[in-house]
């Protein structure tokens, strides 16, 4: 398949190129960037040296492709979706433009009117674990936000099994610096960002909108930047509507995830890595999930999940989705083991 | 005043020496360590080179002092408290041995019988912000645990003003590696600990016991190790028993902390450092406190606090307590500004 | 091919397992560790969860294999080499036991008598770039030390072209913490090791012995620990025996490395990554090489090389060597691109 | 004394404010920044909250002061030196404008004509250890560059004792990110800068010019960025013009530094901190110096020095210079011990 990556100079775009360039069934025919137009891709993504001699083309030089991946800043993809759709049969959007189904919610969270409301129903939610059958038949897929994805993987089985209570669910997320993108500013300046534990969003993070679309509960997402480049870990503090036993929690998670190629349940009694940790996931498409039940009450639990925000939180998930769309083995090009120590 | 530090080769002990060696009214006459007995102190704490030519003595060579600081591992101080009390008028204990007033609670959390229950009522809680008057008259003071202290500073004003609801309070704490001490083991091996986001205690952390002694609510402390040497930041997710406005929250915190020399309320509308962050507190005795109210409901808030775990979370707090006991200016020897960037 | 890894619980052993478990032509039949005997491998190497259900066996339970990899501490392999050789046709040793050909040099650098001098000539030096033909025919191969390897890749072309002057060559190496192994001690305790710039060996590092075996010059290796888990970068400060032009340096390095699958010459005029850097090499088998000539004199240059110490500096190089020995494509199982950012 | 800081929003400016605000004999009357004019200083330097309620004024609002500190970008101070000199008796410049005495050298290294050659001889070199007597009588002082200062402290005793050989001296410097300033760009973006070992200047760094002004030898400065915010460590590889014994090296360094309040000779036989390391110097005005002699030849040595680039490499050195100029105790306001661990 011939694919183009629009907006390929950012971190999600670069990660997508890394995965696509090694994918056995894919040929990357174009990667665009207005800022770096004409430069070799490996000048911006130095890890790709030796793997491609392609140069960045401009956003307006889009070739006919089987698939177009959109890695543009939020709010751009929707303006050009008509023209993209004339160039490719499949469009996989990694921005937030087509994630929120309800235009009122879109307006509430993004403070602007959605420009293409008629396109919204054409987009399928790119969450293989819960929308695989829709994805198989879709032409247009919206990849969820990184923190939404990590949170949904933790909460969806509980939501679907109807065990969540009505108390506010507190999601305390810790995130690395690559999530804030490749554009330098004061908040990601090394001397300021290094070694920080910076609560930058106490509530009202936009990924909450995606959560609330799937989880019919009061959910609060609190996000803290920690010293890390790649990776997200979330601790979701939940209450149950009845007493739960550990055995039942195990069976709920096993029910939804036992056959999932990229979900591992991590809950060890000994060793250092008893719960999910992002650092051993760098470069992998895993979402590791664990939980700790309050055994005294049976009413409270902490659900932990961890991902590489650029892979399962973006580019890797997009490749997994393409594998499904194309009818290939879902793990094709995504079998990197992850490093330890790192 | 002549002071001795028992158990001076660990990180809390070393930090205490740093503060005491520059304190204008204090002379350090002994620092003990069985492991490093006979070695120069600056061989273990290299920052002290040029500030003392003292060598470590053994734990059994305790001199008569005005004050003895105990920085021993948990469970040791209680065994020798009688003999310490014969050597010094004032004892300031930085271990957990005399923090929990109720021996049943002590047994529950530490899984051993308290050896000196008659000593427990003699010890005053070393929290200047809430027990200053008792400390002034005390001879024996128990310094609180680092995470308990950071959490109490965040929650005590709400508890005292009786605005907390009955829902479980979730304290999501992030901590650096110095808190796990100076003894090498697999969990603090650099290659394993570096860059981690490791939830190591989902609930039931021993510092919960200290919290529950002061806060009459259901409190859960979840602790995650992050890449950091010094520092703790906690996000306390609270609910109120009635609707609260931001103005009221401000006045509650101002009421308790306006005159406190080491508490700053951090709640900025702009800039990077809008909430408390531990990294700019390294070496200082500050506890910075901030909060974010859910304006939609007025019922939920995130309270954020940050400290240097070795200073306000231990050695600095102990010096502040001594300043109170001795009737000196409470900030004596504790006026370091903190570094930025770092 | 059936392979066994002896000493598989350390970092080099774990990295080797990561590479072997995904190698298409290899089956790992045993991994030994006396310390973790009976434990699942993924309890020690958490990244391998889902890739193997093998448990560690003891060092004395060695099975007949096609290949045995030895990842033991220095000085152990030589004691058992006779028995290993009865279990496998090919032995690839990653320790230092068979690297030094001259037993007097071995004694000088390792302060012990070599126990198996008759085995020394049977071992071929595991440097594919310079000993490929010997490796093809070898049964026993000694993988070079990580810093020796990085340094040799930088210097060998200059040595072979006879352009190096007689002045002492200064190799200033910067290294990550994984190189010091998986056994906790004070020097690799996170709070002590974090953020350090620690010169731990000014001269006389044992890898100098390996350098001097190949480079007939006065060579000094100065090693500094920096904040990093994986990776080595070396700056080799060389003088030439005549004036050299940049064009000639290019042609020297191209001559030796143009056809090498794992050597890239990195010397960019613009961009951030103008010279080799280890961080984008994590997990890859590359040795990136660059140089900067003193254009004013033509007599001095800095040669820079970077590797992942666990891959090209050990486990990856060993797999590359096995690919050569087995007659397979030399890059089999070694085609990971490397991550950016990381 | 009343002092003004011109260019106070950068990292050197902020560090200077930290030191001046706690200096017992100094009152800061103005701090300028065109970018942040009108903002509270503590919004930019969050560590200063509670220590000053001053706001930034514009560069053109300079008040009459006893002392003006100039922390402007290179090339700006010289344009306004006449007007500054009318506002203050003493000017202490932390930029590079008045460091190089020879205008031809200035042109060579800075690629622009010096605008104020007549001012050059009025400026004294701000190196207390070697120019204390000139500083005592000076009105205008130029503080040396951070890497030049660290290197000069290592080399000057050897130069003055005439023991250096003619071989090129290789200074391999490792530096933190704060040295590149507070303006965000791609090279100091956290995700790019984090965990790097980036050789960014192989030779020809501008601080070489300052070195060559003092050391009459062939000197090469190679600079590598490592993961660190504050701190510089240099390894200077020197050769001697005759055989030297360790005892002699000791006596050379003792001769020059025994009475220096901010130089410590670090050369331990045991322990972790055997040579100078920048991390325990954060916030201090120390320059730690150590050395390792090649005992076999007596002809080669590695001289190691470490500083906090913002303190002894800039702001702290400037305060030390002011203490000398004013006739105060040279250590006034500079007695912070340094943190460990950190």
TrEMBL record, chains A, B, C, D:
GO molecular function, one term: N-acetyl-gamma-glutamyl-phosphate reductase activity
Major location category of this protein: cytoplasm
InterPro entries, alphabetized: AGPR, AGPR_dimerisation_dom, AGPR_type-1, NAD(P)-bd_dom_sf, Semialdehyde_DH_NAD-bd
Pathways per UniProt: Amino-acid biosynthesis; L-arginine biosynthesis; N(2)-acetyl-L-ornithine from L-glutamate: step 3/4
EC number: 1.2.1.38
Active site location: 146
Domain of life from the UniProt record: Bacteria
Residue ranges of every copy of the Semialdehyde dehydrogenase NAD-binding domain listed in the record: 2-138
Keyword Amino-acid biosynthesis: yes
Record's subcellular location: Cytoplasm
Stored Pfam families: Semialdhyde_dh, Semialdhyde_dhC_1
Catalytic activities: N-acetyl-L-glutamate 5-semialdehyde + phosphate + NADP(+) = N-acetyl-L-glutamyl 5-phosphate + NADPH + H(+)
Function field: Catalyzes the NADPH-dependent reduction of N-acetyl-5-glutamyl phosphate to yield N-acetyl-L-glutamate 5-semialdehyde.
Family: Belongs to the NAGSA dehydrogenase family. Type 1 subfamily.
Record's protein name: N-acetyl-gamma-glutamyl-phosphate reductase
Native species: Paenibacillus nicotianae
Gene name as annotated: argC
